[in-house]
Design brief:
The chain is mostly helical. It is built from 19 helices and no strands. It has three domains: 41 residues, no CATH class; 184 residues, MFS general substrate transporter like domains (Growth Hormone, Chain: A), CATH 1.20.1250.20; 192 residues, MFS general substrate transporter like domains (Growth Hormone, Chain: A, Up-down Bundle), CATH 1.20.1250. Helix 3 packs parallel to helix 9, helix 8 packs antiparallel against helix 9 and helix 11 runs antiparallel to helix 14.
């Protein structure tokens, strides 16, 4: 059935009224049809190609929000000393901020049904307040409640915010979601430095003053996003969540398998590169520089991968990353001295950058259930990433860290055939409900 047969005739007066009501512009002439790959129903975007200011504001909000989540590693020793915590109890404090991520699909599903503008706007202030007040907690139980509430706020922000970034990016999903991810990575890096610097002049209770930065971020989000077009698809375009899950099954299984196979190759250099270098006799400075090189290259790669995936296709960029990243890990292990660091950078740029490309592919495939699909993917990656670091550590204990790096890289190569099973951009219309 052609597009013209599917869409009933609309009186000119109704068209004019719709235009006046929404302020949108659209074309009804022959230029509307550009071939089968364009007839994707609700996924057609008629607004501006990219809302630069709004996407950058969201990325800045992401940076501000994740800055406060980054407080925990620096604050943890203070809590261990104050409440005489065991390592297990201290570990649970970190878990309390992370476990609510399993709620992301709930928030994502709601984002497909409602305009959750206020969730995006208010959650940076809420998370900032909860994390900054941790120094006032009189007991471990109160501390656990504060961190769990911050975890729920964080889960809501990431599920709704990433879907909003995708909507505002229109046809440039790769670019928009890369900016969103870079914001979070910068915040995660800034948080520990900010609170550590603050504790040199403030007491644990006085760091509560830092919450004003989160309030400022929420104010900025309000000013920029209060009229942003964040409306989900309306009426008949919105499938029931059970139908959506059924249609997502194939792609989500593929994305889960990809995350499992590449997870250890990401965790090995990210978590264990300093330990490997120290074992081999490197100085503490060199060992610390390894993480900086890996993460800095990951940020640069994230920006480049999103831009390239909009032009070359998601599969092409994913395939390159899957092949180049593990190769970089192997060469990092094989070489000595500073000569190995360019290949560590290659691994970071190739492997870390795959995450926003996968997010773009998922949102592109399911535009009517963008929030649910994206949140399911994020929850899945969270669980897999947490397990991957444990697996690399176990391999290191059994066979040595060098072999753990090698095995992790070889396992990652196995994901290359799975990338070829993912839909091309022109095929995603058939996947979308």
């Amino acid at each position: 059935m052609s597009l013209a047969e599917e869409i009933p005739a609309v009186p000119a007066a109704s068209v004019a009224a719709a235009y006046d009501a929404t302020g949108s512009s659209f074309s009804t002439g022959p230029s509307f049809s550009t071939g089968p790959s364009f007839s994707t129903g609700p996924s057609i975007s008629t607004g501006p190609s990219f809302s630069t200011g709004e996407v950058l504001t969201l990325a800045s909000g992401h940076a501000a929000h994740d800055t406060y989540i980054g407080f925990l590693p620096v604050l943890l020793p203070h809590f261990v000393e104050r409440f005489a915590l065991s390592n297990t109890m201290a570990g649970w404090l970190s878990a309390f901020t992370q476990l609510p991520s399993i709620l992301q699909p709930v928030f994502g599903h709601l984002a497909d049904r409602l305009v959750l503008r206020w969730v995006v706007i208010l959650t940076p202030a809420i998370t900032a307040t909860l994390m900054s007040l941790a120094g006032w907690a009189p007991s471990y139980a109160v501390l656990a409640v504060l961190f769990a509430a911050a975890g729920v706020s964080s889960a809501a922000f990431h599920a709704v915010g990433s879907a909003a970034a995708g909507r505002l990016s229109r046809r440039h999903l790769g670019r928009g979601l890369s900016l969103w991810m870079v914001g979070g990575e910068l915040g995660a890096a800034l948080g520990p430095m900010l609170v550590a610097a603050a504790l040199t002049v403030l007491t644990m209770k006085e760091i509560g003053l830092l919450m004003v930065l989160g309030w400022g971020a929420s104010l900025l989000l309000y000013l920029q996003l209060r009229r942003a077009p964040l409306q989900p698809h309306a009426g008949a375009a919105r499938p029931h969540w059970r139908d959506s899950l059924g249609k997502m099954r194939r792609i989500m299984l593929l994305m889960g398998a990809l995350a499992i196979l590449r997870g250890m190759a990401v965790s090995a250099p990210w978590v264990f590169a300093p330990l490997l270098l120290k074992e081999e006799g490197s100085s503490g400075f060199v060992a610390g520089a390894a993480v900086t090189v890996f993460l800095a290259a990951g940020i640069a790669g994230t920006l480049a991968a999103g831009w390239l995936s909009d032009r070359l296709g998601r599969r092409a960029v994913l395939l390159f990353g899957i092949l180049a990243g593990p190769a970089g890990v192997l060469l990092f292990v094989a070489l000595d001295g500073w000569a190995r660091f360019p290949f560590l950078a290659l691994a970071g740029a190739s492997l870390v950058s795959l995450h926003p490309v996968c997010m773009a592919l998922v949102q592109e495939a399911f535009p009517e259930s963008r929030g649910l699909a994206n949140a399911l993917y994020l929850s899945m990656v969270f669980v897999i990433s947490s397990s991957a670091a444990v697996a690399v550590g176990a391999l290191g204990d059994a066979a040595g860290l060098r072999w753990a790096f090698v095995i992790s890289a070889l396992i990652a190569f196995l994901s290359a055939p799975l990338v070829l099973l993912l839909p091309r951009s022109e095929e995603q219309a058939a996947v979308a409900p």
